[in-house]
Amino acid sequence: xxxxxxxxxxxxxxxxxxxxxxxLHPAWVRTMLAVAIxxxxxxxxxxxxxxxxxxxxxxxxxxxxxxxxQLALGILLIVLALREAVPGEGIPGGAVRIAALTxxxxxxxxxxxxxxxxxxxxxxxxxxxxxxxxxxxxxxMALPTFVVTxxxxxxxxxxxxxxxxxxxxxxxxxxxxxxxxxxxxxSNLSHVxxxxxxxxxxxxxxxxxxxxxxxxxxxxxxx
Amino acid sequence: xxxxxxxxxxxxxxLMIAYQKGDMDAFTGLYNALKRxxxxxxxxxxxxxTMAEDLxxxxxLQLHRARQTYTxxxxxxxxxxAITRHVALMHLRSMRRRKExxxxxxxxxVPVPPEMDQLADRATVQRLLSTLPREAQEVxxxxxxxxxxxxxVGAIVGIAPGTAKVRAHRALKKVREQMIEEGA
Lengths: 223, 184
Hints:
The structure holds two protein chains of two kinds.
Chain A lengths: L7 H8 L11 H22 L12 H24 L8 H25 L10 H28 L5 H23 L5 H30 L5
Helix pairs in contact in A: 2-3, 2-5, 2-6, 3-4, 3-6, 4-6, 4-7, 5-6, 5-7, 6-7
Chain B lengths: L4 H16 L3 H23 L2 H17 L10 H23 L15 H4 L4 H10 L2 H12 L4 H8 L3 H22 L2
Helix pairs in contact in B: 1-2, 2-3, 2-4, 3-4, 4-8, 7-9, 8-9
């Protein structure tokens, strides 16, 4: 094959599909769409549900302060996922690990601090039923943001799609947990670790698997 | 040969913008400007000229399918090289699955920058480069041979710029040590 001219097969493939395209918006602009969905969902839930009964016993930094921190962290993770979706803008592997671990660590630390400041509120029984309720609630809140984030990720060209999916899953659930933290009346640590942190891990895993599946489908022609 | 990187980057950006607007001549310009360095880069993965040329076609097809993901006026080269790298890695993964082995060939003719030329004759440099692990070789080639900054190398490979710098430094050190051992 000569390199001097474009091979005929390649030229024909390009010429047959040469309509103009609009460049993708920067990651922060695309994040705004996911954040808009997130804001609508969280505002709706906050308007409809009542705050946890011990909200006045918790210091401001632990109630609203930690919620704002989790929300900011969730949005940051979505920005990272959308950056990861554009070739040449991917974030270093070490930064991905730090971001994912920070998401989990913050969620766990907020749970630990809450259990220290408000240790009395527990539910009767094994806690499985309210736990499943919390899990479903958190998942339902995270799902719209997660779906929009994944759609934005897969519309671009993530070269490490599982990583982008993991970050998107973490971002959606950590942001949702920011509000769940203000609503869930249970403060015992096992409940938070199993059902709330569990939801974050499940969405991270779903994002990872969605990325792997997309990667297999997208790059099938190459292999 | 002194290459004005800024002028080259601006030209690539202009071509990419025109290509996004549907200009076939701009695609031809991109292909002509990038084919040889991309072949050189692809060679570091497959070490076979014929396969590198096949992957070059696949790379340009993937570029075409993803052309909307380039956002002007960002530099074009990190975007293109990141896609090229992925095409090569996907191909290697597929080869591993099928347990295929390609015969290694000599390097294609490419310009060797002054930093590398000073070390030894071109044949020696190219031979020693080919003995390095792929990760080290890749960073070294992107920075020293293709003139990328460590920020650009990091963006392409998915590592921090500092890590890219350390990898390139270690690789260069290893090449130098091998030259001393061989008395080159």
